[in-house]
Design brief:
The chain is mainly alpha-helical. The chain is built from six helices and no strands. α5 packs antiparallel against α6.
Length: 171
């Protein structure tokens, strides 16, 4: 591409930058997942080495590998977790509000699906009408877009029907 192209179409740089954000996010997520997996595998190998020797790993090693205290029994972990949700804890209240909000949005999911289905159907109809009134090559382009949007509209209507039929109970 020539420099003149970028001078005339400088707005494409913004579009390319916006499109690059999700791609960079996917790459970073894959990298962090790989690092987490290698860390967990190394921790498992360390604990396996202790098991092969028939020894119990020192509490410091278990704490360093898992991030949990090995000195406390599992029952103590459960009690500590239960105490953090006694109702006076602001994090517990926040978690309860988020759970109620999520239940409310799950209940409203069919409305969102129908909104998308109606929007895409209207776009498909608009491009279909534009294909009838356009002349030359643009009519073919409008018809192609209308066909693609029609297929997406059918899929949207099907998912809206499924979301409506399988609607969760009201919270």
């Amino acid at each position: 591409m020539t420099p003149e192209f970028w001078e005339r179409h400088s707005w494409l740089i913004i579009v390319l930058a916006v499109m690059a954000v999700p791609i960079i996010g996917i790459i970073v997520n894959a990298f962090t997942t790989a690092l987490y997996f290698s860390h967990r595998r190394a921790a498992l190998e360390t604990l396996k080495a202790y098991a092969d020797q028939g020894k119990t790993p020192p509490p410091e090693v278990v704490e360093a590998l898992t991030g949990r205290s090995a000195r406390a029994s599992p029952e103590a972990w459960i009690d500590e977790f239960a105490e953090s949700f006694d109702g006076s804890d602001r994090y517990a209240r926040r978690a309860a509000r988020q759970a109620m909000r999520a239940a409310r949005w799950r209940y409203r999911e069919p409305y969102r699906r129908w909104n998308g289905a109606i929007t895409v159907t209207a776009l498909a109809a608009g491009f279909g009408i534009a294909a009838q009134y356009a002349h030359g090559d643009t009519a073919d382009a409008f018809l192609l877009v209308a066909i693609i949007l029609g297929a997406v509209a059918v899929a949207q209507v099907l998912t809206a029907l499924v979301a409506t039929v399988l609607r969760p109970p009201r919270p």
